[in-house]
Structures are given as C-alpha cells and as structure tokens.
C-alpha cells in the first residue's frame, strides 16, 4: 500500500505530503482545488509522460515520490527480472528538471519508463474518467476478462509461443520471397563460382609467381653476375680467398710469438671460413639459375589469369578473390539446397503455429469459462445498485491470432427491461457507466493483489441510496485493499477511515494547492457543506454527524 506521498513543485502544488490510511481514504474539495492535480502527479509514478509545463517554479526541479509497503505481495520476481533491489518498502521517484529532462528511480536505481510502468502497475491502479471511455473498447474488455480469469500464466505462455511462431513464420516468408531472386541469380553466380573454383587460387601465390618471373626474365644477367662474384672471391689464380688465406698464415705465426695477437688470428680465420661458405652459396645459386623460356610463359599465363579475375571482380589481391569464391559457393549451395531449407523452415513454422494454437485454445477456454460468472456477479451488483432490469452479456468470438490471443470479447449492456443489449459505447449513460464500472472494479478487486486502488469520481451521475451502496462497496473493498477515493458525494465521503481536504491557498503572491487531514469535527463540517452548501444549516450538520456515526458503528 501507499504509505507516504511527496509532491514538490508540481502544477499548483508547491509541496504536499500525505500519509494515507491503510483502508479507505476520502479526498474532497471544491472543483479546481487540485484533486486532479494530485492524480496527475501520481500518474507520473505510473510512468505517464511529463514536461516542464507542470513545474510550479520553472527554475526548480519537480519531485514526485511514493513509498509503498509491498511485503506479502508476490512481486519479487519482477524486481529480479528488472535487476532491481527488493525491499519490503519500495520507494518510487520521478524527477523533472527545469530543462525538461525526466528521470525515474525505483529504490534509488535509475530505470526507464517501461520498467517503471511494469513495477508500479503491480502497486497501484487508478480509475479515472478515461477508464469509462476505455470500457467501451474490446481490448479493455478482454483485459477485464483476463483479470477475472486470473489467466496470467496462460497468457504469458501464449505470448511466448506467439512470438516464436511470428519469428519462424517470418523466417519462412523471407526465405520464400528470396527464393525467386536467388534462383534468377543462380546461373550467373554459378558461372562466376566455377570460373574461380577452376582457377585453384592459392593465397600469396601472386607474389611468389611475380618474383619467380622476374628472375626468369633476367636469368642471363643474374647468372653472369653471380659467376663474376664467385670468381672475385675464390678464383684459383688470384682471389680474395687466396689473399685472405695468406693473411691468416701470417697471423698464425705472430700469434705463436705472443697471445695478444691470437684474437686477430681467430677473426681472420673466421672471416676465411665465412668467405668460403659465401663463395659456395654463390656458386650453387649460379648453377640453379635456369634460362627456361617455357617456365616463364607458364607463369605469365597464370599471372594473366589472376590479373583478369582481379579486374573482373574489382580487387587487387588473391585473398579477396578467394573470399569472393567462398561467398559465391555459399550462394550457389544455398540455391541447390533451397528446397530443403524451405521445407525445414515451413515445418518449423507449422510446428510453432500448432503449439501457439494449442496455447491459444487453452487461454480461450479459461476466458470462456468465466464469462457467465462475470455476467451473473455484475448483474447481482447492478441490482444492488438500483438497476434491477440491467443486463450484461459478454460475447466471445474466435479470430486470427494476435498478441492477446484468438478471442475478441464484446460487452453488451442494457439498463432497461425489454431493450436488447448493445455495445456499451452506444447505450450507457454517465450514471450507468459509473455503476457498471463500480461493479466491475468490485469483482476484480478480489481477483488481484493490488496494494492500492484509486477511484477518481467513480460515483459520477449517482446519488441517494445508490451512493450509499457504492460507499459500502468501497468500504468492503478496503478490507483487503488500500482505497483512495475522490468524491463529491457525502454518502461516500462518510465511509472513509481517513478524510483529506484539498483547497487553494491564496495567502501568498501565488496561489497554491494544499491538502490537510480532517479531524472528526472538521469532517462533520465538510460533509455538512457537501450536503447543504457553503453555509450548512444545523440540520445539515446534524445529518453529517449522524451519517458519520452510523458508518463508524458499521
């Protein structure tokens, strides 16, 4: 339940705090005093949109904060799924900065509006005049049936199956749409693939072939230069090796005389060994250089093929050609296996459809099972509310699967005997709507574990004995729910376990809305004014005191 409400800098409210009673809270006040403003602020906690126009002082941020006692209500799972800290007291806050930026928090953790709505929808329900309009829509009527049927688990199962079906059907439809284009492109793609596959491309072969061709094209000169280099180093008649060998011999002699020359002798010996090795390697390379015109022609042909393929596919390297070949192979293979893929996708879609329809039928069965009980309960309550000839019929028709199932629910209503029930939006007056909505809210209250329910003038269009009965129904609901009711009727105001009065304060330079909790004597005066006007007579005051005492005894 709502244990504390704080509103700062919102519309005409500079600062307002409430600590509602756990049972039936009555809110009264003159029209325009700020009752609807309070509801607008609470609506922000439910995730409604806001802008800077709601700021009382446009230079200061607006803060709406509600503390809810949630122990005993099974909502921990929502906190786990949204990765929020759970505590017996849940604090929800909305802030609107002067710049218009809006932020939301649950237990001091920043959340987006979708998460905020999901959490607070389990904490509070507001009935407003908008609900009376919604009552005429099939979607809202279906929600009412689902709430009464308590089919949340079936609805979640169906929605999960529906999403799987939609995904699998989409995969099949997309594949089917692509199939024609893929088949039209098959011949061209297959030609390109076979051309690249026939080339037997190897990564990095272009570089090695270009290098080999360069050697073959210059083989004569390379062979000549290598031979000259060899002869310079190791010519039998006069060479660098022969001269270095003589130098090594001289250093051997001096090294024998003194050890200080030994390092030079070793370096000379090492240089001699390295030079002989180099000469041998040059000789080997010279012998390996082959003036082979046939091999050069073969390489040129191979490189020409690679260059042609690169030009054709607008690339400069073999690696990209190989990637293109692999991509074409995938496309060609996909077309070759297209019938199998289509068959598999269709089978999966059909299986998902079958499972979805089974879930839909189970959900529909649960809904249809409660239609007559709803009609009976609401009929009885409408009779108690002074509409003995009223009748409500609920029709359910099957249709195509939607996110909410295969059912379309229609409420048909008649307030008078002998008049055929018609759709609600066509037949119900304001007072009839109020009584019908009261009956619906009453029967649904026992089906939901909502901590707090707010009624915004649900008593519109009723008076007298009917108002008393509506007040009794609210008092009864308050036994298991916290109720906050905005009303203009003394019969309902007298039912409250706490009474708050909203008024405008004109004492400062700028008008503000304020709220105060009334004492017993103040309640008597307020209800007397609701009965007899601004200056109630002693009779009105006596009547106010009497109905308060009667309800206190009740």
TrEMBL record:
One of its GO terms (biological process) is SOS response. Keywords: ATP-binding, DNA damage, DNA repair, Nucleotide-binding. Pfam families: SMC_N. GO terms for cellular component: bacterial nucleoid. Belongs to the RecN family. May be involved in recombinational repair of damaged DNA. This is DNA repair protein RecN. It comes from Fibrella aquatilis. The lineage of its organism: Bacteria, Pseudomonadati, Bacteroidota, Cytophagia, Cytophagales. The gene is recN.
């Amino acid at each position: 339940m709502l244990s504390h409400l704080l509103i700062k800098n919102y519309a005409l409210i500079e600062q307002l705090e409430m600590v509602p009673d756990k049972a039936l809270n009555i809110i009264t006040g003159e029209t325009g005093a700020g009752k609807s403003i309070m509801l607008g602020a609470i609506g922000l906690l439910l995730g409604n949109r806001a802008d800077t126009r709601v700021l009382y002082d446009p230079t200061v941020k607006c803060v709406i904060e509600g503390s809810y006692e949630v122990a005993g209500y099974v909502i921990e799972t929502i906190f786990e799924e949204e990765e929020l800290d759970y505590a017996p007291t849940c604090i929800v806050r909305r802030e609107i900065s002067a710049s218009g930026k809006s932020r939301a928090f649950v237990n001091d953790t920043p959340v987006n509006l979708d998460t905020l709505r999901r959490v607070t929808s389990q904490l509070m329900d507001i009935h407003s005049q908008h609900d009376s309009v919604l009552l005429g829509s099939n979607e809202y009527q279906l929600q009412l049936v689902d709430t009464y049927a308590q089919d949340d688990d079936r609805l979640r199962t169906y929605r999960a199956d529906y999403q799987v079906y939609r995904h699998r059907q989409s995969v099949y439809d997309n594949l089917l749409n692509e199939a024609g284009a893929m088949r039209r492109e098959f011949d061209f793609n297959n030609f390109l693939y076979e051309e690249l596959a026939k080339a037997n491309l190897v990564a990095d072969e272009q570089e090695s072939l270009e290098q080999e061709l360069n050697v073959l094209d210059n083989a004569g000169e390379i062979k000549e230069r290598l031979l000259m280099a060899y002869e310079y180093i190791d010519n039998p008649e006069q060479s660098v090796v022969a001269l270095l060998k003589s130098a090594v011999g001289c250093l051997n002699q001096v090294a024998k005389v003194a050890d200080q020359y030994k390092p030079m002798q070793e370096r000379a010996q090492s240089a001699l060994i390295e030079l002989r090795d180099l000469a041998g390697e040059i000789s080997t390379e010279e012998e390996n250089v082959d003036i082979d015109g046939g091999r050069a022609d073969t390489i040129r042909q191979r490189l020409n093929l690679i260059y042609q393929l690169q030009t054709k596919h607008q690339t400069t390297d073999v690696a990209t050609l190989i990637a293109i070949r692999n991509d074409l192979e995938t496309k060609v293979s996909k077309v070759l296996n297209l019938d199998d893929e289509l068959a598999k996708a269709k089978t999966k879609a059909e299986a998902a459809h079958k499972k979805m329809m089974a879930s839909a039928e189970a959900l529909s069965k649960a809904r249809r099972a409660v239609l007559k009980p709803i009609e009976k309960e609401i009929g009885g309550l409408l009779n108690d509310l002074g509409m003995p000839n009223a009748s409500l019929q609920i029709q359910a028709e099957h249709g195509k699967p939607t996110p909410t199932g295969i059912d379309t629910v229609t409420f048909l209503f008649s307030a008078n005997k002998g008049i055929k029930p018609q759709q609600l939006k066509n037949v119900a007056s304001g007072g009839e709507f109020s009584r019908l909505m009261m009956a619906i809210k009453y029967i649904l209250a026992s089906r939901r574990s909502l901590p707090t329910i707010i009624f915004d003038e649900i008593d519109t269009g009723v008076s007298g004995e009917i108002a008393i009965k509506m007040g009794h129904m609210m008092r009864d609901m308050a036994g298991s729910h916290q109720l906050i009711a905005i009303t203009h009727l003394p019969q309902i105001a007298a039912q409250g376990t706490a009474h708050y009065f909203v008024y405008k304060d004109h004492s400062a330079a700028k008008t503000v809305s304020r709220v105060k909790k009334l004492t017993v004597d103040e309640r008597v005066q307020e209800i007397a004014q609701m009965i007899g006007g601004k200056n109630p007579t002693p009779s009105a005051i006596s009547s106010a005191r009497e109905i308060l005492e009667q309800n206190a005894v009740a």
